[in-house]
Amino acid sequence: MTSADNLRAFRRDGRIVIVGASLAGLRAAECLREEGFTGSLTMIGDELGEPYDRPPLSKQVLTGWVPADGTTLPRRRDIDAEWLLGVPASGLDLATDHVRLADGREVPFDRVLIATGVRARPWFVESEAELDGVFVVRTREHAEGLQRALAAGPSRVLVIGAGFTGSEIASVCRERDIPVTVAELGPYPLVGALGAMIGEVAADMQRAHGVDLRCGVKVTRLEGDAQGRLRRAHFDDGSTVDADVAVVALGGIRNTEWLRGSGLAAGVWGIACDTGCRAMDLNGLITDDVFVAGDVARCPNPVYEYRLISLEHWANAVEQAEIAAHNMIHGQADRWPHLSIPRFWSIQFGVNIKSVGVPTFADEVVVTQGSVSDHRFVAAYGYQGRVTAAVTFNNAKWLDHYRQLIETAAPFPPPCPTPDQPVDTKPVPVDFPGPLLLAQGATVVVTGHDPGERRVTAAHQHHR
Amino acid sequence: MRVVVDLSRCEGYAQCAFLAPDAFRLHGEEALMYDPEPDDALRDRVLRAAAACPVQAILVDRLEGRRIPVEAARS
C-alpha cells in the first residue's frame, strides 16, 4: 500500500482521540469533520458538560449579567464523537498508542491531539487556599462561587496578582461598588506582559477607579477565623488588609504532568511542537501521530526568531486547532504551518485593551497614536529596529495595520498613520522585569492570507 | 441560543449593540460584552446582528434544534 492509500484509509476509518474538551479540542473536532474525516472521534475531558467559553467567566459572569453555566460554546457543526467526560487523562503510551484515563480505562488511537490547556495556579499554602472566601477563576464552578461571594456584598475583596485576570476581576469589583485591594509583586499591573510604560497607565487606571493598588508587595499569609472563613491578609512589608474574599490570580499551570514518561518534550512551558502542531519528543524529533493545540502548545514562531512560544490566547487556540486538525488528515506536501501573529484582548475599567504580536519580544516601546492620558492610544513595540508588537487602548481598529507592519518586519519606530500624532513620540526602553531573552537571529516576512497560503520568506533587509 | 464573539477580531463598530441591545452591550467606548446564551426570543435580532458585523466576529450555533446531547453519550 502506498502512503496515499494509507492516508485515504485513515481518513475513512482511522481513530482520532482528542484529549481536552474545551475550545481548542472542540474546534479541532469540528475541523476534522469539516475536512472529511469519517473515522471514529473520541473527546476526553476532565470537566463534565459540554465545552464552554472561559473569557466571559471573569467579565460578564462576575458582573452577574450572565449565569456561570450560560457560556456553552456554539457549535459550527455536528462532530459525531464519543465523549468521555469527567475523568482526566493520566498517561500517554506511544509504544502501543493508548491514552490512559485516571479511572484505569485505556483508549486506543491512530492519531491523538493534545489540548489539555491550563489550570489555575492555586494559593501556595493548601490550608489557606481552603479557607471560605478564597477563590481562583478558571472553571465555571470557580466563577459561580466567586459571583455568589461578590453578590453577598463583601466588605473588601483582595485580588492577589495584577495580570490580566486579576485586573479584570478588580474592575468588576469596582463596577459592583465593592472595595478592592490589588496586591502585585511587580512594580505595576500588567508589567510582565506589556512592560513598565503601559504598566504605569494600567496603575493610573486602577487608582482612578478607586482600587487600593499595592505594588512591589507579596502576600505572605491568609488568615482565617475560627469558622474557617478568610478574615485578613498579611503582606511582606508587615502591613495587613481585612478582607472576606481573596482571589488568587497568579496565572496558570499547564496540564502536562500526565505526559510524564510519555517521551514527549513536555514540561512547565508546555509541549514543544513544530508550526504544523506536531509534537516533539524528548530528543527533539518531530512525531508523526501526536499533535498539540491551544494553551498547552509551545510552538516556534518564525517572526520571533523561531523561538518556542506558548500563548494563553483565545484566537491562538482556535487557529492551532484548525492547523492541527488539517495536518492530522493530510500528507506532508499538503500540510499547513501555523504562522499567525498572536492577538489578545482584555476588558477592564471601561477600556478595551488589545495587543498584536509579542510585546515581550522588544527592546523599545513608543506611543504612535492618540493620547495616553485619555486612555485612547496605540503603542508600538520594536526589537533591533523592527516592529514586533503593538498594544491599543480603545483603538482596536488600528490593530490590523500594526499586524501588517509586524508581518513585513517594518522599521521601528513606525510613522504615525493618522493626524492624531502624540506629543512625545520618542521610543523608551521597554523595561520588563526579569532577564532579557533576546538574541540576534533571522528576520523573516510572512505572506498570504488563508492558512493554506501563508508562507515565510527570509528578509534581507538590514535595520540597525 | 448560543453565541460566541471572536473578540480578537472585534473592532468595536457596535452594529450588534444597536441591533440586539439585550444581547450585546458596549462597556466603555469600544469594549464589547455579550450574553453567550441569549433568550431564544432574541433570535432574529441576534442573527441580524451577526450578519451585520463588519468583521464577521459573531458565531451563532449552527446545530440549534438538532443537538445530540453530550450527556447521552457520556460513559
Automatic annotation (TrEMBL), chain B:
Coiled-coil features, chain-numbered ranges: none
Keywords: 3Fe-4S, Electron transport, Iron, Iron-sulfur, Metal-binding, Transport
Cofactor(s), by name: [3Fe-4S] cluster
Gene Ontology molecular function: 3 iron, 4 sulfur cluster binding; metal ion binding
Listed transmembrane segments: none
Protein name: Ferredoxin
